[in-house]
Specification:
16 helices, 380 residues, alpha/beta
Length: 380
């Protein structure tokens, strides 16, 4: 099973926006002439928080494809899995993101630091292959959730070791310098990111030839949600080297759902406000699982009394990722990002609201993915 040159991970916390996400990729192809393979992704952590099973993602993807008469390939990603949780994803998924960041050592030689992680990736890959059949899924290896970016020599060693483990890796997610916080733009030195991204492309191209890795092996970017400043860089370099890319997004869809509710009608706005107020009161609980990928300035968070006075436009402008808007508040946006647990707990109100306002929400989601994300990648 081989994934196409360009692919886009479209995570969906609540499995309600498959059609709207797929519409964005279809629209992007019309506008920019570039075909993105849709990959619906949801992690084990997200399933546990929301209370869903992986098969719900498969059902969402299949339903969206059927509803739009989509004829091209698509995938369902078991996102950031390991041996402890992979079995629940076997039936539903045909793309597996094998996360071995926890097995990377902090000290020692390159072999001492990275070989245990590669050996673990081999165990997980062979376990999936035994259960599912080696030709029935796409393999990604993820090493992004670590403290330090991998050097070109380290990435070359990793790819060589993956080849020796006979893992047919098609996408690789290394760590880059800088902050990839959830729901907001990349924070770091753009020149340094460009240097690392280009070096990684060069290492991958050389490793394909030298180690016999799959010819379509490409970089995977975690988290690609809302990292607008690096999209033109990535787009320019993948065109320069005529290579593919996999960009993984997830939480940005939930954020657009929240904005859609806010602008839909007064009752839905009240629901969006209640989610924020509840999240404010439970901030420590909600932020701990995401502590390494959020930077919330508590002093910038509006009080419940202030939010209660907001109209729909004020709420939406505060949330919407438009850095030119003086009302945009990245701390507010990041707290909403981790508050999807609150929305799930309000399911008897939240899910009907998603259904009732699907048209309004859908416009927010489709525009966000197509205009804010993909357009930045391919606009000259």
């Amino acid at each position: 099973m081989t994934i196409g040159k360009y692919s886009f991970g479209i995570g969906d916390r609540f499995a309600h926006e498959g059609v709207n996400q797929l519409k964005a990729l279809i629209e992007a192809e019309k506008l920019f002439g570039v075909h993105f393979v849709p990959v619906w992704n949801k992690s084990n952590r997200e399933h546990q928080i929301v209370g869903t099973e992986p098969m719900a993602v498969r059902q969402e993807a299949d339903s969206a494809v059927a509803a739009l008469g989509y004829k091209d390939q698509y995938f369902v990603d078991a996102d950031h899995i390991n041996l402890n949780n992979v079995d629940r994803f076997i039936e539903a998924s045909d793309f597996f993101t094998i996360d071995v960041a926890d097995y990377i050592g902090k000290k020692g030689s390159v072999e001492e630091r990275f070989l245990p992680a590669i050996r673990e990736a081999g165990k997980i890959y062979r376990h999936i292959a035994e259960k599912k059949g080696a030709d029935n899924f796409v393999t990604e290896v993820s090493m992004d959730e670590v403290d330090e970016a991998q050097t070109p020599d380290e990435l070359r060693f990793i790819l060589k070791a993956l080849a020796e483990e006979n893992i047919p890796v098609q996408t690789i997610a290394p760590k880059f310098t800088g902050r990839f916080n959830k729901g907001v733009d990349y924070r770091g030195d753009l020149a340094q990111f460009e240097k690392e991204f280009e070096q990684d492309l060069q290492v991958i191209a050389g490793s394909i030839k030298e180690y016999g890795l799959p010819e379509n092996l490409k970089l995977s970017i975690h988290s690609g949600s809302d990292k607008f400043s690096i999209y033109p860089i990535m787009g320019r370099l993948i065109r320069k080297y005529d290579t593919g890319i996999h960009i993984k997004t997830a939480g940005t869809t939930w954020l657009e759902e929240n904005i859609g509710l806010a602008v839909a009608d007064p009752d839905a706005l009240a629901l969006a406000k209640r989610i924020y107020v509840n999240a404010l009161g439970r901030m420590e609980e909600l932020t701990v699982p995401y502590a390494t990928v959020i930077d919330i300035n508590v002093a910038d968070l509006p009080s419940p009394e202030e939010v209660e006075k907001w109209d729909a436009e004020t709420y939406a402008r505060t949330m919407r990722h438009n850095q030119a808007d003086p009302l945009y508040n990245p701390s507010f946006r990041q707290l909403i990002h981790v508050s999807y647990k609150i929305a799930a707990e309000l399911g008897s109100e939240f899910y009907p609201a998603l259904e009732k306002h699907t048209d309004v929400i859908g416009r927010e989601i489709t525009a966000n993915l197509c205009e804010r994300h993909i357009k930045r990648l391919f606009a000259e």
